[in-house]
Give the backbone structure.
Amino acid sequence: MLENLNLPPLWTTECQETSAIELSLRFTCKWHGLTWYPIEYDPVGGVAYGLTTHIVPTWRHFNVRELSERYGNAEVVLDRGFIPGRVPLIREVALYCLDDLTPFLPLPVQVPGLPDSHGGL
């Protein structure tokens, strides 16, 4: 599926900021509501790395040759009408405010009767 497409080898985009990554391809499985945006590819093993969207966008590796098999032989197709763009500009991604480089920091919770981080109640 990807053999004739121009994607860089695996680990090429490892040090790039998320906002700088260009999503140039989109694979979809309409039956399961899944979408894959490969950004790197190893043609020998069929392994790609990219963004997947279903419930929440996630960066992960996936085997392009096994996609249809894995999802019950549902048709996984290359979306030829997809307009390439940078990660934050893709509608499905922008809805989630994706920024995989920012760690999750929970807000402090004040429990009544316990001292807060400043020593007060």
Confidence is low (pLDDT under 50) at residues 98-106. Residues 22-94 form one domain. Residues 57 and 102 are 15 Å apart (CA to CA). The first strand starts at residue 22 and ends at 23.
